[in-house]
Amino acid sequence: MPATVIVGTQWGDEGKGKVTDVLAENADVVVRFQGGNNAGHTIVIGEERFALTLIPSGVLNPGVMPVIAGGCVVDPKVLLEEIATLESRGVDTSLLRLSANAHLIMPYHRVLDAQQERFLGEAQIGTTKRGIGPAYTDKYARNGIRVQDLFDAKILADKLAVTLREKNKLLQALYDQPGMDEKEILDEYLGYAELLAPHVADTSLLISEALGQGKQVLFEGAQATLLDVDHGTYPFVTSSNPTAGAAAVGAGVGPTSITRVVGVAKAYISRVGSGPFPTELDDEVGARMVEVGGEFGTVTGRRRRCGWLDTVALRYATRINGLTDIALTKLDVLSEFDRLKVCVAYETDQGRFDEFPRQQRVLYESRPVYEELPGWATDISAARTLDDLPQEAIDYIAYVEKSAGVPVTMVSVGPQRDATLLR
Ligand code: IMP
């Protein structure tokens, strides 16, 4: 701290929400800097389970200001529903701030997402169909509609008219879908303006002021390194940069203010959607990981593909993000297995890869080179300090540290807040 970035080191679902929630205890501001409601964070507090998609996990810590920064894409309907749900459960959302620069997910983005996937057929990405890709596409094509446009009815109407003309042609002629009604969308989105108004702000300024006052700011990444549009397993990625450098760009702060980058790594790996996954297990062990780890998506409910920890990918994530430390999550799930495997390199017909390959094809063809480690085969979910862990679990943590080259400063052994062992 004062400025800490939290990123996923794998293909998402590493437990970033929980790590953010724990670190947010000492934070003043928690910022989402990319992505939208494709993310899913499940946080358990006591008996209560909260599933968030858009609002930063920090909202559950009283006094923390949650910020949705300009690098995000926002579905206003989903945001308002999330606010209403949290309020109905007694969570105060009045401090939530939304960047006037964030781009809006429009109804045609959701339809286009689904249609583009349909057109890809077997080559589909397996998106969350929340309109994320089409919204970012419009942003970079400079056709996007931003939160600030909601507050200028004329600009909103003009922009919508221009873009909808093109979208409706596309929907009807190419995708064989009904066109969308301009007035209906306009009325719907103008209706959101009043409801969102109390939250809309210049979030870059707010964050800079907080940093200037020595406050603690947490930047919460959604998705993860291997889903990064530049550094992930393209095209099986999301349409934003979930890596640490994007925190500065997406939030509108200088990179020099970031002092710590925590990489969240699950003790094994999972992936939803399509794309290469060298350590994927199609066997009983993989099925057991799904079952014991509860590996079903928070957003879409899809079953996640699971496999052993891949330290080649972890080293890559350490490099791309400049990790300072690692939070190792779901270590308790590995209690199921007598022997553990960790991938240390990829073997291919072209030779061995110790570093993440620059040619994507290698990932498909590679056979993981595993090292075997002894398991602990005993329930560790009640551990509350590192001293409570069996030696084999301590050794596993040490192995991860050695492989990644950075310390593990946090270990999670269960969904509850206090099942987090710090050092
Ligand atoms: P999109 O972000 O909906 O465009 O989906 C692109 C890819 O990213 C798909 O493989 C999704 O399953 C994956 N993805 C998007 N968000 C998440 C997430 O929060 N966790 C895990 N995978 C995600």
What does this structure look like?
- With 423 residues, this protein is an alpha/beta fold.
- Helices cover 33% and strands 20% of the residues.
- It has twelve helices and 20 strands.
- It has a ten-stranded mixed sheet, sandwiched between helices. Strands 14, 16, 17 and 18 form a four-stranded mixed sheet that branches. The chain has a two-stranded antiparallel sheet with strand order 3-4.
- Helix 3 (107-120) packs across helix 4 (132-140) and helix 5 (153-174) packs across helix 6.
- The longest helix has 22 residues, at 153-174.
- It is globular and about 65 Å long.
- The two termini are 15 Å apart.
- The site of inosinic acid has 20 residues, from helix 4.
Task: Give the helix tally.
Answer: 12
**Quick one: how many beta strands?**
20
Cα distance spanning the termini: 15 Å
| Widest sheet, order of strands | 9-7-5-2-10-1-11-15-19-20
The 3D shape can be described as globular
Classify the helix fraction into a percent range: 25-40%
Mean pLDDT: 96
Low-confidence parts, pLDDT < 50 over ≥5 residues?
none
Gyration radius, rounded: 21 Å
User: Structural class, from helix and strand content?
Assistant: alpha/beta
Specify the biggest β-sheet: 10 strands, mixed
Ligand kinds: inosinic acid
Percent of sequence in beta strands: 15-25%
For this entry, give a set of tags.
ten-stranded mixed sheet; four-stranded mixed sheet; 12 helices; binds inosinic acid; single chain; 20 strands; alpha/beta; 423 residues; globular
What is this structure's SSE topology?
Blueprint: E1 3-8, H1 16-23, E2 29-32, E3 41-45, E4 48-52, E5 65-68, E6 73-74, H2 76-88, E7 97-99, E8 103-104, H3 107-120, H4 132-140, H5 153-174, H6 182-196, E9 200-201, H7 203-212, E10 217-220, H8 245-251, E11 260-266, E12 269-271, H9 284-293, E13 305-307, E14 309-310, H10 311-321, E15 325-329, E16 339-348, E17 351-353, H11 360-365, E18 367-374, H12 391-404, E19 408-412, E20 420-422
Parallel strand pairs: 1-10, 1-11, 2-5, 2-10, 5-7, 6-8, 7-9, 11-15, 14-16, 15-19
Antiparallel strand pairs: 3-4, 12-13, 16-17, 16-18, 19-20
The chain binds inosinic acid.
